[in-house]
Design a protein that fits this description.
The chain is an alpha+beta fold. The protein folds into two domains: 89 residues; 241 residues, Bira Bifunctional Protein, Domain 2 (BirA Bifunctional Protein, domain 2), CATH 3.30.930.10. Helix content is 39%, strand content 19%. The chain contains eleven helices and ten strands. The chain has a seven-stranded mixed beta sheet with strand order 1-5-6-10-9-8-7, sandwiched between helices. Strands 2-4-3 form a three-stranded antiparallel beta sheet. Strand 3 and strand 4 form a beta hairpin. The longest helix is centred in the N-terminal third of the chain and has 38 residues. The radius of gyration is 37 Å and the shape is elongated.
Length: 352
């Protein structure tokens, strides 16, 4: 049996040296290590051998099999290299052709717009202040002049993490970045309770609302809160700040208007529109033929909110606003569906 294995090995290796293409190589493998090959037949007959012959023949058969597989791998690599060398010799290579471009990652469009907004506010003297996304009912509503069961709470449907009773101060996902106003004012006021320092901050972050997902509403969105607190701050300061921001964001010729509105944490309150930069104020589908686009809500900080933040409303005043970067991006680029921002469709993301 051992002599037969040596003959099988010699015949197989000799026939392998004459092979020069992949088809013949595959046929060699079937003939020498396939199920019906002489080598495999020896493996199949091991059970008929005596106890003394079985380990000796089995070891020799394994050695031949390993030799075949090793020789097959070497021959396959040689054939592959020979084919590659032949193609390089025979085929023409135009070295003047441009190389394949490499896809480079980039920032998400929402992040790009968020940074654009914060860069402008930084130039205007606002410092970035970050606050938590998971809040208490006190911080998100009550300290911002939303008492329990206040009808204004219906403006912001809420994800409650630990619901319980409204009076138990449940945990929730913040519905706006305004809770950061209270945390920032208390942090600043703690530095000098008798004479708190002035504040000028921008609070960016993700907000969450339990709403029906449509082309114009999502359950999550970015928001940038602005807050300025100090002595002798008036609504004129708010208007001047917003007007400067609009010119920096939308161009020197951008027109804006203030409309009276209502927010529990500001008094008086207003919404700000800019003249539609798509149609120039003539009316189009983007501005719903009104000629104006809403970009943010704002107002003077309510005395109750100032008091809750540690600032005496008889001495201090302030203004605040909240804007949505995604909404500004939708208006600027005529994006008609807010769901594109979180759909992870590369065809959409590659446009920015």
């Amino acid at each position: 049996m051992q002599e037969k294995l040596k003959e099988i090995e010699k015949a197989g290796l000799e026939s392998l040296t004459a092979i020069t293409d992949q088809t013949a190589l595959d046929a060699w493998r079937v003939a020498n290590v396939g199920r019906s090959s002489p080598l495999m037949q020896i493996f199949a007959g091991l059970g008929k051998l005596s106890k003394e012959e079985k380990p000796v023949v089995g070891a020799e058969a394994n050695r031949v099999k390993v030799a075949f597989e090793s020789a097959f791998a070497e021959r396959a690599e040689a054939i592959k290299n020979a084919a590659l060398a032949k193609s390089l010799e025979e085929e023409k290579l135009d070295v003047t052709l441009p190389g394949r471009s490499v896809n480079i990652g980039r920032l998400h469009p929402s992040t790009q717009q968020l940074r654009r907004v914060l860069d402008i506010l930084a130039e205007m003297g606002f410092q970035v202040y970050t606050s938590r996304e998971v809040e208490t009912d006190d911080m998100n509503f009550q300290l911002l002049n939303f008492p329990p069961h206040h009808p204004a709470r219906d403006m912001q449907d809420t994800f409650f993490v630990e619901a319980g009773d409204r009076g138990d101060n449940p945990i929730l996902m913040r519905t706006h970045t305004s809770p950061g106003q209270i945390r920032a004012m208390r942090e600043y006021a703690a530095r000098d309770p008798q004479n708190p320092p002035p504040i000028r901050i921008a609070l960016p972050g993700m907000c969450f609302r339990y709403e029906q997902i449509t082309a114009r509403s999502e359950i999550q969105f970015n928001q940038v809160e602005g807050l300025a607190v100090g002595k002798n701050i008036t609504f004129a300061d708010l208007k001047g700040t917003i007007a400067d921001f609009v010119r920096r964001m939308f161009g020197e010729g951008a027109r804006l208007r203030f409309r009276a509105s209502y927010f529990p944490f500001t008094e008086p309150s207003a919404e700000v529109d800019v003249e539609c930069f798509v149609c120039g104020g003539k009316g189009c589908q983007v501005c719903k033929n009104s000629g104006w686009l809403e970009i943010l809500g704002c107002g003077m900080v309510h005395p109750v909110v100032l008091q809750n933040g540690g600032y005496d409303p008889k001495i201090y005043s302030g203004f605040a606003w909240g804007m949505g970067p995604e909404r500004q991006l939708m208006l600027r680029n005529k994006i008609n569906d807010i769901r594109y921002f979180w759909g992870n469709d590369v065809r959409f993301l590659e446009q920015f």
